[in-house]
Amino acid sequence: MVLPGPLLGSARRAIFGSAQSVLWGLKSIKGSCHNFCTAVFKDVTYKELKSLLNSRQITLIDVRERWEIVEYGKIPGSVNIPLDEVGEALQMNPKDFKEKYNEVKPSKSDS
Description:
This protein has 111 residues and is mainly alpha-helical.
């Protein structure tokens, strides 16, 4: 799958540009990150991201809204959790997470 240039830039901003907001949201939940504050901020190219996803070295949480996934497409190998749901989603039990997001819940040890 090849993403058009503007979409790739948009996806990069949606995914990586929002990372600080996600972590801030997690930090504000009961005053801690619940062990999910292991993100490393780094720009990656499409090729690097594809390689990381294929090697299963990372769990990519795509924080775009559902309408953006429908309009622009899902990033293969990613888990879509809209930004305003991330903090709550990562605290769900695995069964509820699977039911709501149709994906296996990332573990606390996942990169």
